Amino acid sequence: MFKATILNIKTHQNLFEIQLSSELGELYMLSLELDKHIQNGKEVMLGFKSSDLILSARRPDISSRNCFLAKVQSVEKGELISVINLKANDFKFDTMISSNLIHKIKDELYVILSETSLYISEIL
């Protein structure tokens, strides 16, 4: 979990697009529901499932707005799945990849996070 500030909320046909500022940079979240206490300027705690992250050695040219650079802290190699421990600014997190892709891991990786993978865990 990490702290973020809500910058802007757009809504259309029961779909909410939330623009946030965080230590990972500017992030965007899509949600079907939104608590009435969530408003511009509010601080919230955000979370995501570690298995929802996509890693890339190069800056990807794709249709995701949530892309940031992270440093690899360590790799825990498993038989089938390996855990990659990452750090972006002061935020530490991990993700899993297939162990047969471990050779593609560099010192720094771009992390792509889907807008539908982010969730608000707490309103501060």
Task: Describe the protein's architecture and organization.
It is a single chain. The chain has 124 residues and is mostly beta strands. The protein has a single domain (2-123), classed as OB fold (Dihydrolipoamide Acetyltransferase, E2P). Helix content is 0%, strand content 58%. The chain is built from no helices and ten strands. The strands form two sheets. Strands 3-2-1-4-10 form a five-stranded antiparallel β-sheet, with no helix packed on it. It is elongated. The mean pLDDT is 93.
Which labels suit this protein?
124 residues; mainly beta; OB fold (Dihydrolipoamide Acetyltransferase, E2P); five-stranded antiparallel beta sheet; 10 strands
Helices and strands in order:
Elements: E1 2-12, E2 15-22, E3 25-31, E4 43-47, E5 53-56, E6 67-76, E7 81-88, E8 91-98, E9 108-113, E10 119-123
Antiparallel strand pairs: 1-2, 1-4, 2-3, 4-10, 5-9, 6-7, 6-9, 7-8
Structure at a glance:
With 124 residues, the protein is mainly beta.
Number of domains: 1
In order across it, which strands form the biggest sheet?
3-2-1-4-10
CATH architecture: Beta Barrel
β-strand percent reads over 45%
The number of distinct β-strands equals 10
CATH homologous group name: RNA polymerase II/Efflux pump adaptor protein, barrel-sandwich hybrid domain
Head-to-tail CA distance between termini: 13 Å
Organism: Campylobacter hyointestinalis subsp. lawsonii
Protein name: Molybdenum-pterin binding domain-containing protein
InterPro entries: Mo/tungstate-bd_C_term_dom
